Amino acid sequence: MTVQEWAVEASGLTMRYGRRRAPVLDDCRLTVPAGSVCGLVGPNGAGKSTLLALAAGLLRPSSGELRVLGSVPPGARAEVAYVAQSKPLPSQLTVAAVLRLGAELNRSSGRWSSKAAESIAYEQGGLDPRERIRSLSGGQRTRVALALAFGKRARLMLLDEPMADLDPLARQKLMGALMAEASEHGTTIVMSSHVLPELEGTCDHLVLLGAGRVRLAGPVDELVSSHVLLTGAGSLDGQRVVEQRPAGRGATALVRRGDALPPGWEAVEPSLEEIVLAHLRTTGSTAPEEAAV
Amino acid sequence: MFAYRIDRRSGVATYVQIVQQTKQALRLGLLDVGDQLPTAREVVAATAINPNTVLKAYRELEREGLVEARRGQGTFVRQALGRADHNGLRTDLAAWASRARAEGLEREDALALAAAVLDEHFPQGHEGDAG
Fold first, then answer.
1. Is the CB of B45 less than 8 angstroms away from the CB of A177?
2. Which of A37, A183, A197 sits opposite B8 (nearest CB)?
3. How far apart are CA A204 and CA B53, in angstroms?
4. What is the pLDDT of residue B126?
5. Which residues of B fall within a CB distance of 8 Å from A200?
6. Partner-chain contact B45 A179, CB within 8 Å
7. How far apart are CA A120 and CA A149, in angstroms?
């Protein structure tokens, strides 16, 4: 097995559902380093789910290049786990039967771990193995889908809002399990989420999509250190202002850290959440940023 | 096993919280020379933080000479921090606390009293480097 630098690599990636409609993804260029925990954020309709489905190989791009674990999707299917927002599971089967099915379908890869799957499904306020899928709640179905994803022992996990319908205990358990997976096996995790504080402690890489384009992407610590939050009054000439808002007689502004800070402004390091929110608010009104920090 | 408590709203960087809690545990004797710190996997499974954060904290502790990473085994305590009980200070304090309790003081009363005495002997601004 060769070591790839990038788990996901896209350039010029464009996806449109129908010729006459605006593209959902428009000329996207992005990379997700192997072994990273990558948060995928953006407003509704930004193209997050489409990007994940393309990476999973469920959709084909209209144009552009996409490589996942070095292959054109779904070439690396056996090593990629994908959990969609809709959880298509056989409704008449029991939880235990679904996990057995997962084991059978993944037999050829030789990677399946019943222990990993059962830990997610059954431990800590988990499910009854005899319960049928059709009688489960949305959050419980999510748990089954995630159990399959963990059982697969994938090298790349693509998770579309995995936390959305989980209770706080299940969220904490799942996030812990994901981080343990990343720590122990170097698994690359790409997950979309709207819960920014949740991503702040867990993600080391971030991709921000807005209106089909990559607005911001890079390692979280670099994104944070490349921005500065200024409070004060006076001119911001020569600063690359992301967003500026009035504060009393002056203003607060999130700017790209340049060579020199403007005099008379107090500078603090912004949180990841502040950076993401500022870019989200200004999405559409500014030119897209380069993918690199 | 030693467990970290991560407060995401504290404003203190997560890796700093791990460093501080480890030092606190060393001071209190919850961790001693030769003890193993939890593995990165154990910490992240319990706290749901990014593994790199744990590794960064452990590197910092290693840089300060407090712990050492042994290849393939884990991270171990190398040096205890100035523990407060080596001259029987803790024993004296425990005797004081039990007397305070016997005389009917509430926990808050005892804390206020102790804080007042500490303020007399350790004036503010002369705390030195707490790290």
1. yes
2. A197
3. 9
4. 46
5. 8
6. yes
7. 10
| Global ipTM | 0.78
Structure confidence at residue A286 (pLDDT): 45
Pick from B12, B50, B56 the residue to mutate for testing the A interface (most A CBs within 10 Å): B50
Q: How confident is the model at residue B122 (pLDDT cuts 50, 70, 90)?
A: confident
Query: B14 and A177: CB-CB below 8 Å?
Result: no
Q: How far apart are CA A273 and CA A278, in angstroms?
A: 8
Asked whether the predicted pLDDT for residue B107 surpasses 60, the reply is: yes
Comparing CB atoms, the residue among B8, B47, B51 nearest residue A182 is: B51
pLDDT of A114 reads 93
B30 falls within a domain:
yes
Q: Which residues of chain A have pLDDT under 50?
A: 1, 285-293
Whole domain around residue B103: which residue ranges?
A: 89-121
Which residues in chain A (189-208) have CB-CB distances under 8 A to chain B? 197, 200-204
Residue B42 counted as domain residue: yes
Residue B69 lies in a domain: yes
Are B8 and A204 in contact (CB < 8 Å)? no
Number of domains present in the structure of chain B: 2
User: What confidence score (pLDDT) does residue A3 get?
Assistant: 58
Q: Per the CB < 8 Å rule, is B51 touching A179?
A: yes
**Separation CA B91–CA A116 (nearest Å):** 48
Q: What is the 3-state secondary structure (H, E, C) of chain B?
A: CCCCCCCCCCCCCHHHHHHHHHHHHHHHCCCCCCCECCCHHHHHHHHCCCHHHHHHHHHHHHHCCCEEEECCCEEEECCCCCCCCCCCHHHHHHHHHHHHHHCCCCHHHHHHHHHHHHHHHCCCCCCCCCC
Cβ contact, residue pair B8, A201, below 8 Å: yes
Residue B84 lies in a domain: no
pLDDT in tens, A229-266: 999 888 888 888 999 988 888 889 999 988 788 888 88
Cα separation, A275 vs A196, whole angstroms: 11
Domains of chain A (ranges plus CATH)? 6-217 (3.40.50.300), 226-282 (no CATH)
Instruction: Tell me if B48 and A172 make a contact (CB, 8 A cut-off).
Output: yes
Which residue in the set B8, B45, B50 is minimally distant from A37, CB to CB? B50
At B47-98, the pLDDT tens digits run: 999 999 999 999 999 999 999 999 888 999 998 877 655 667 778 888 999 9
- Report whether pLDDT(B31) > 60: yes
User: What number of residues does chain A have?
Assistant: 293
